[in-house]
Predict the structure.
Amino acid sequence: MQVGKLIWGAALGVLLASNAQAHSAADIGGGFVSGLLHPVLGWDHVAAMVAVGLWGAFLGSPAVWLLPVVFPLVMAVGGALGLAGVDLPGVEIGIAASALVLGAMILLAARPPLWIAGLLVASFAIFHGHAHGTELPDAASPLAYSLGFVIATGLLHLSGISFGLLVRWPLGRSAVRAAGAVIALAGGLFLWQAV
Amino acid sequence: MQGVGDFYGGILHPLVVPAHVLSLVMLGLLAGQRGMAAVRRTYLGFLPALVAGLALSGAGVAEDPEPLLLLASALMGLLVVLQWRLPPGLFPLIGATVALLLGLDSAPEGLAPAPYVATLAGTALGAFACLLLVADLSERASPGWQRIGLRVLGSWGAASATLVYAMRWLVP
Protein backbone atom coordinates (compact mmCIF):
# COMPACT_ATOMS: atom_id res chain seq x y z
CA MET A 1 0.00 0.00 0.00
CA GLN A 2 2.86 2.39 0.92
CA VAL A 3 4.63 1.68 -2.37
CA GLY A 4 1.38 2.36 -4.22
CA LYS A 5 0.97 5.74 -2.50
CA LEU A 6 4.57 6.58 -3.36
CA ILE A 7 3.99 5.80 -7.05
CA TRP A 8 0.83 7.93 -7.16
CA GLY A 9 2.66 10.76 -5.39
CA ALA A 10 5.56 10.60 -7.85
CA ALA A 11 3.17 10.49 -10.82
CA LEU A 12 1.28 13.51 -9.47
CA GLY A 13 4.55 15.39 -9.02
CA VAL A 14 5.54 14.72 -12.60
CA LEU A 15 2.15 15.81 -13.91
CA LEU A 16 2.14 19.02 -11.86
CA ALA A 17 5.68 19.99 -12.80
CA SER A 18 6.13 22.99 -15.03
CA ASN A 19 8.57 23.11 -17.96
CA ALA A 20 12.02 21.55 -17.73
CA GLN A 21 15.16 23.49 -18.57
CA ALA A 22 16.25 21.80 -21.76
CA HIS A 23 13.13 19.79 -22.51
CA SER A 24 9.68 21.31 -22.93
CA ALA A 25 7.06 19.47 -20.88
CA ALA A 26 4.40 20.74 -23.29
CA ASP A 27 6.19 18.99 -26.18
CA ILE A 28 6.62 15.80 -24.14
CA GLY A 29 3.00 15.78 -22.94
CA GLY A 30 1.66 16.68 -26.40
CA GLY A 31 3.84 14.04 -28.08
CA PHE A 32 2.75 11.36 -25.61
CA VAL A 33 -0.96 12.15 -25.93
CA SER A 34 -0.86 12.30 -29.73
CA GLY A 35 1.05 8.99 -29.79
CA LEU A 36 -1.48 7.49 -27.38
CA LEU A 37 -4.40 8.62 -29.53
CA HIS A 38 -2.93 7.72 -32.91
CA PRO A 39 -3.59 3.94 -32.96
CA VAL A 40 -6.98 4.44 -31.25
CA LEU A 41 -8.24 6.86 -33.91
CA GLY A 42 -7.52 4.60 -36.89
CA TRP A 43 -10.15 1.83 -37.14
CA ASP A 44 -7.90 -0.36 -39.28
CA HIS A 45 -5.21 -0.27 -36.56
CA VAL A 46 -7.75 -0.83 -33.78
CA ALA A 47 -9.28 -3.87 -35.50
CA ALA A 48 -5.88 -5.51 -36.09
CA MET A 49 -4.58 -4.80 -32.57
CA VAL A 50 -7.69 -6.17 -30.89
CA ALA A 51 -7.50 -9.20 -33.19
CA VAL A 52 -3.92 -9.93 -32.05
CA GLY A 53 -5.10 -10.01 -28.42
CA LEU A 54 -8.21 -12.03 -29.23
CA TRP A 55 -6.30 -14.62 -31.23
CA GLY A 56 -3.63 -14.86 -28.53
CA ALA A 57 -6.28 -15.54 -25.89
CA PHE A 58 -7.90 -18.07 -28.24
CA LEU A 59 -4.60 -19.91 -28.69
CA GLY A 60 -3.90 -19.88 -24.94
CA SER A 61 -0.53 -19.71 -23.15
CA PRO A 62 2.17 -18.84 -24.23
CA ALA A 63 0.63 -17.24 -27.37
CA VAL A 64 -1.59 -15.05 -25.17
CA TRP A 65 1.44 -13.02 -24.08
CA LEU A 66 3.97 -13.91 -26.76
CA LEU A 67 2.04 -12.40 -29.69
CA PRO A 68 1.55 -9.01 -27.94
CA VAL A 69 5.29 -9.02 -27.07
CA VAL A 70 6.39 -9.88 -30.62
CA PHE A 71 4.12 -7.26 -32.19
CA PRO A 72 5.70 -4.03 -30.81
CA LEU A 73 9.24 -5.35 -31.26
CA VAL A 74 8.71 -6.13 -34.96
CA MET A 75 6.62 -2.97 -35.32
CA ALA A 76 9.75 -1.02 -34.31
CA VAL A 77 11.68 -2.71 -37.13
CA GLY A 78 8.92 -1.69 -39.56
CA GLY A 79 9.08 1.83 -38.14
CA ALA A 80 12.84 1.94 -38.71
CA LEU A 81 12.27 0.88 -42.34
CA GLY A 82 9.76 3.73 -42.70
CA LEU A 83 12.24 6.19 -41.17
CA ALA A 84 14.97 4.97 -43.49
CA GLY A 85 12.72 5.80 -46.43
CA VAL A 86 12.48 2.15 -47.51
CA ASP A 87 9.45 2.05 -49.76
CA LEU A 88 7.29 -0.85 -48.62
CA PRO A 89 4.72 -1.60 -51.32
CA GLY A 90 1.08 -1.77 -50.26
CA VAL A 91 1.35 -0.60 -46.65
CA GLU A 92 -2.36 0.27 -46.44
CA ILE A 93 -3.26 -3.04 -48.09
CA GLY A 94 -1.06 -4.90 -45.58
CA ILE A 95 -2.74 -3.11 -42.64
CA ALA A 96 -6.21 -3.88 -43.98
CA ALA A 97 -5.21 -7.49 -44.73
CA SER A 98 -3.99 -7.88 -41.13
CA ALA A 99 -7.51 -7.26 -39.80
CA LEU A 100 -9.03 -9.54 -42.45
CA VAL A 101 -6.62 -12.45 -41.93
CA LEU A 102 -6.43 -12.27 -38.12
CA GLY A 103 -10.21 -11.89 -37.88
CA ALA A 104 -10.61 -14.93 -40.13
CA MET A 105 -8.18 -16.93 -37.95
CA ILE A 106 -10.39 -16.21 -34.92
CA LEU A 107 -13.60 -16.94 -36.80
CA LEU A 108 -12.26 -20.26 -38.07
CA ALA A 109 -10.76 -21.10 -34.64
CA ALA A 110 -7.44 -21.71 -36.42
CA ARG A 111 -4.74 -23.22 -34.21
CA PRO A 112 -1.49 -23.17 -36.20
CA PRO A 113 1.86 -23.92 -34.48
CA LEU A 114 3.07 -21.05 -32.31
CA TRP A 115 5.89 -20.11 -34.67
CA ILE A 116 3.49 -19.74 -37.60
CA ALA A 117 1.14 -17.56 -35.52
CA GLY A 118 4.14 -15.47 -34.43
CA LEU A 119 5.41 -15.16 -37.98
CA LEU A 120 2.00 -14.08 -39.25
CA VAL A 121 1.57 -11.44 -36.54
CA ALA A 122 5.17 -10.25 -37.01
CA SER A 123 4.76 -9.84 -40.77
CA PHE A 124 1.66 -7.67 -40.25
CA ALA A 125 3.47 -5.68 -37.54
CA ILE A 126 5.98 -4.55 -40.20
CA PHE A 127 3.18 -2.75 -42.11
CA HIS A 128 1.74 -1.12 -38.97
CA GLY A 129 5.24 -0.04 -37.86
CA HIS A 130 6.06 1.38 -41.29
CA ALA A 131 2.92 3.55 -41.19
CA HIS A 132 3.80 4.82 -37.69
CA GLY A 133 7.49 5.31 -38.47
CA THR A 134 6.92 7.66 -41.37
CA GLU A 135 4.87 9.93 -39.05
CA LEU A 136 7.44 9.93 -36.23
CA PRO A 137 9.75 12.77 -37.38
CA ASP A 138 6.81 15.22 -37.28
CA ALA A 139 6.11 14.51 -33.61
CA ALA A 140 7.00 17.24 -31.08
CA SER A 141 8.78 14.72 -28.84
CA PRO A 142 9.45 11.54 -30.87
CA LEU A 143 10.22 9.33 -27.85
CA ALA A 144 7.13 10.47 -25.94
CA TYR A 145 5.08 9.93 -29.14
CA SER A 146 6.47 6.44 -29.71
CA LEU A 147 5.98 5.52 -26.03
CA GLY A 148 2.39 6.72 -26.32
CA PHE A 149 1.55 4.68 -29.39
CA VAL A 150 3.37 1.56 -28.19
CA ILE A 151 1.43 1.74 -24.90
CA ALA A 152 -1.86 2.35 -26.75
CA THR A 153 -1.08 -0.63 -29.00
CA GLY A 154 -0.42 -2.77 -25.93
CA LEU A 155 -3.66 -1.64 -24.30
CA LEU A 156 -5.60 -2.54 -27.46
CA HIS A 157 -3.99 -5.99 -27.33
CA LEU A 158 -5.02 -6.19 -23.67
CA SER A 159 -8.62 -5.34 -24.50
CA GLY A 160 -8.58 -8.14 -27.07
CA ILE A 161 -7.09 -10.55 -24.53
CA SER A 162 -9.69 -9.56 -21.91
CA PHE A 163 -12.53 -10.27 -24.30
CA GLY A 164 -10.77 -13.36 -25.62
CA LEU A 165 -10.63 -14.92 -22.15
CA LEU A 166 -14.37 -15.63 -22.62
CA VAL A 167 -13.31 -18.70 -24.66
CA ARG A 168 -13.34 -20.66 -21.41
CA TRP A 169 -17.13 -20.90 -21.70
CA PRO A 170 -19.00 -22.36 -24.72
CA LEU A 171 -21.13 -19.23 -25.19
CA GLY A 172 -18.06 -17.03 -24.78
CA ARG A 173 -16.23 -19.07 -27.42
CA SER A 174 -19.05 -18.30 -29.85
CA ALA A 175 -18.90 -14.61 -28.88
CA VAL A 176 -15.14 -14.49 -29.52
CA ARG A 177 -15.55 -16.18 -32.92
CA ALA A 178 -18.35 -13.71 -33.74
CA ALA A 179 -15.99 -10.86 -32.83
CA GLY A 180 -13.45 -12.42 -35.21
CA ALA A 181 -16.13 -12.38 -37.92
CA VAL A 182 -16.82 -8.68 -37.31
CA ILE A 183 -13.07 -7.89 -37.48
CA ALA A 184 -12.65 -9.92 -40.68
CA LEU A 185 -15.64 -8.16 -42.21
CA ALA A 186 -14.21 -4.75 -41.25
CA GLY A 187 -10.82 -5.87 -42.64
CA GLY A 188 -12.50 -6.77 -45.91
CA LEU A 189 -14.05 -3.31 -46.05
CA PHE A 190 -10.69 -1.63 -45.31
CA LEU A 191 -9.07 -3.77 -47.99
CA TRP A 192 -11.70 -2.80 -50.55
CA GLN A 193 -11.10 0.88 -49.69
CA ALA A 194 -7.31 0.46 -49.88
CA VAL A 195 -7.41 -1.28 -53.24
CA MET B 1 12.42 23.49 -13.77
CA GLN B 2 10.40 26.61 -12.98
CA GLY B 3 8.13 27.01 -9.97
CA VAL B 4 9.42 24.14 -7.84
CA GLY B 5 12.91 25.34 -6.94
CA ASP B 6 16.31 24.06 -8.05
CA PHE B 7 16.56 20.98 -5.85
CA TYR B 8 13.02 19.72 -6.52
CA GLY B 9 13.39 20.65 -10.18
CA GLY B 10 16.47 18.44 -10.23
CA ILE B 11 14.50 15.58 -8.62
CA LEU B 12 11.82 15.83 -11.31
CA HIS B 13 14.28 16.21 -14.20
CA PRO B 14 14.99 12.48 -14.80
CA LEU B 15 11.26 11.77 -14.50
CA VAL B 16 10.14 14.24 -17.18
CA VAL B 17 12.84 13.53 -19.77
CA PRO B 18 11.49 10.50 -21.70
CA ALA B 19 14.92 9.05 -22.57
CA HIS B 20 16.02 9.25 -18.92
CA VAL B 21 12.92 7.77 -17.34
CA LEU B 22 12.85 5.02 -19.98
CA SER B 23 16.45 4.00 -19.29
CA LEU B 24 15.82 3.98 -15.53
CA VAL B 25 12.68 1.86 -15.92
CA MET B 26 14.44 -0.62 -18.24
CA LEU B 27 17.41 -0.87 -15.86
CA GLY B 28 15.08 -1.40 -12.90
CA LEU B 29 13.13 -4.09 -14.78
CA LEU B 30 16.32 -5.86 -15.86
CA ALA B 31 17.84 -5.89 -12.38
CA GLY B 32 14.59 -6.63 -10.54
CA GLN B 33 13.82 -9.53 -12.86
CA ARG B 34 17.04 -11.26 -11.74
CA GLY B 35 16.47 -10.84 -8.00
CA MET B 36 17.77 -8.83 -5.08
CA ALA B 37 21.44 -9.80 -5.57
CA ALA B 38 21.37 -8.33 -9.10
CA VAL B 39 19.57 -5.22 -7.80
CA ARG B 40 22.27 -4.63 -5.15
CA ARG B 41 25.05 -5.13 -7.70
CA THR B 42 23.34 -2.65 -10.04
CA TYR B 43 23.23 -0.02 -7.28
CA LEU B 44 26.96 -0.58 -6.66
CA GLY B 45 27.77 0.50 -10.20
CA PHE B 46 24.95 3.01 -10.58
CA LEU B 47 25.57 5.34 -7.64
CA PRO B 48 29.27 6.24 -8.12
CA ALA B 49 28.86 6.48 -11.90
CA LEU B 50 25.85 8.79 -11.49
CA VAL B 51 27.84 11.11 -9.22
CA ALA B 52 30.75 11.05 -11.70
CA GLY B 53 28.47 11.66 -14.69
CA LEU B 54 26.70 14.58 -13.02
CA ALA B 55 30.02 16.08 -11.90
CA LEU B 56 31.34 15.91 -15.47
CA SER B 57 28.08 16.99 -17.10
CA GLY B 58 29.05 20.66 -17.29
CA ALA B 59 32.52 19.91 -18.66
CA GLY B 60 31.25 19.05 -22.14
CA VAL B 61 32.77 15.55 -22.02
CA ALA B 62 30.01 14.07 -24.17
CA GLU B 63 28.36 16.03 -26.97
CA ASP B 64 24.98 14.26 -27.00
CA PRO B 65 24.73 11.07 -24.90
CA GLU B 66 20.96 10.63 -25.48
CA PRO B 67 21.26 8.28 -28.52
CA LEU B 68 23.53 5.98 -26.48
CA LEU B 69 21.00 6.07 -23.64
CA LEU B 70 18.29 5.06 -26.13
CA LEU B 71 20.46 2.23 -27.44
CA ALA B 72 21.07 1.04 -23.87
CA SER B 73 17.31 1.18 -23.18
CA ALA B 74 16.54 -0.85 -26.32
CA LEU B 75 19.11 -3.51 -25.40
CA MET B 76 17.96 -3.70 -21.77
CA GLY B 77 14.33 -3.98 -22.92
CA LEU B 78 15.27 -6.86 -25.20
CA LEU B 79 17.12 -8.61 -22.37
CA VAL B 80 14.00 -8.22 -20.18
CA VAL B 81 11.84 -9.76 -22.93
CA LEU B 82 14.24 -12.68 -23.34
CA GLN B 83 14.66 -13.13 -19.56
CA TRP B 84 18.32 -13.66 -20.30
CA ARG B 85 20.35 -14.97 -17.34
CA LEU B 86 23.13 -12.40 -17.41
CA PRO B 87 26.32 -13.09 -15.42
CA PRO B 88 25.97 -11.30 -12.04
CA GLY B 89 29.23 -9.43 -12.66
CA LEU B 90 27.64 -7.54 -15.55
CA PHE B 91 25.04 -5.74 -13.44
CA PRO B 92 27.41 -3.16 -11.88
CA LEU B 93 28.74 -2.46 -15.38
CA ILE B 94 25.27 -2.00 -16.86
CA GLY B 95 24.19 0.18 -13.92
CA ALA B 96 27.35 2.29 -14.24
CA THR B 97 26.92 2.75 -18.01
CA VAL B 98 23.32 3.93 -17.73
CA ALA B 99 24.14 6.21 -14.78
CA LEU B 100 27.14 7.76 -16.50
CA LEU B 101 25.19 8.52 -19.69
CA LEU B 102 22.23 9.85 -17.72
CA GLY B 103 24.48 12.04 -15.58
CA LEU B 104 26.33 13.44 -18.60
CA ASP B 105 22.99 14.28 -20.25
CA SER B 106 21.67 16.16 -17.19
CA ALA B 107 23.67 19.39 -17.19
CA PRO B 108 21.57 22.32 -15.90
CA GLU B 109 21.82 25.37 -18.11
CA GLY B 110 22.59 28.94 -17.05
CA LEU B 111 22.66 28.50 -13.27
CA ALA B 112 24.90 30.03 -10.59
CA PRO B 113 27.13 27.54 -8.68
CA ALA B 114 24.82 27.04 -5.65
CA PRO B 115 21.59 26.31 -7.57
CA TYR B 116 23.66 24.28 -10.04
CA VAL B 117 24.84 21.95 -7.29
CA ALA B 118 21.34 21.82 -5.75
CA THR B 119 19.88 20.82 -9.13
CA LEU B 120 22.51 18.10 -9.64
CA ALA B 121 21.91 16.77 -6.11
CA GLY B 122 18.17 16.65 -6.83
CA THR B 123 18.78 14.87 -10.14
CA ALA B 124 20.90 12.23 -8.40
CA LEU B 125 18.18 11.68 -5.81
CA GLY B 126 15.36 11.60 -8.39
CA ALA B 127 17.19 9.17 -10.68
CA PHE B 128 18.11 6.82 -7.83
CA ALA B 129 14.59 6.95 -6.34
CA CYS B 130 13.10 6.05 -9.72
CA LEU B 131 15.49 3.11 -10.16
CA LEU B 132 14.91 1.98 -6.56
CA LEU B 133 11.14 1.98 -7.02
CA VAL B 134 11.09 0.13 -10.35
CA ALA B 135 13.74 -2.42 -9.31
CA ASP B 136 11.96 -3.09 -6.01
CA LEU B 137 8.54 -3.54 -7.64
CA SER B 138 10.04 -5.77 -10.35
CA GLU B 139 11.88 -7.88 -7.80
CA ARG B 140 8.61 -8.40 -5.89
CA ALA B 141 6.74 -9.56 -9.01
CA SER B 142 5.48 -13.07 -8.42
CA PRO B 143 6.01 -15.82 -10.98
CA GLY B 144 3.20 -16.01 -13.51
CA TRP B 145 1.27 -13.00 -14.82
CA GLN B 146 3.33 -10.41 -12.98
CA ARG B 147 6.60 -11.74 -14.45
CA ILE B 148 4.97 -11.80 -17.89
CA GLY B 149 3.93 -8.17 -17.30
CA LEU B 150 7.60 -7.25 -16.81
CA ARG B 151 8.45 -8.83 -20.18
CA VAL B 152 5.59 -6.95 -21.85
CA LEU B 153 6.88 -3.68 -20.37
CA GLY B 154 10.35 -4.60 -21.63
CA SER B 155 9.00 -5.05 -25.15
CA TRP B 156 7.26 -1.66 -25.02
CA GLY B 157 10.44 0.05 -23.86
CA ALA B 158 12.62 -1.75 -26.42
CA ALA B 159 10.23 -0.88 -29.26
CA SER B 160 9.98 2.82 -28.33
CA ALA B 161 13.73 3.23 -27.82
CA THR B 162 14.56 1.36 -31.06
CA LEU B 163 12.24 3.60 -33.09
CA VAL B 164 13.66 6.85 -31.76
CA TYR B 165 17.26 5.57 -31.93
CA ALA B 166 16.64 4.66 -35.56
CA MET B 167 15.15 8.10 -36.16
CA ARG B 168 18.22 9.82 -34.69
CA TRP B 169 20.41 7.91 -37.14
CA LEU B 170 18.24 7.78 -40.23
CA VAL B 171 16.41 11.11 -40.36
CA PRO B 172 18.67 14.05 -41.24
Remarks:
- Residues 12-22 of chain A have pLDDT under 50 and may be disordered.
- The longest helix of chain A spans residues 170-194.
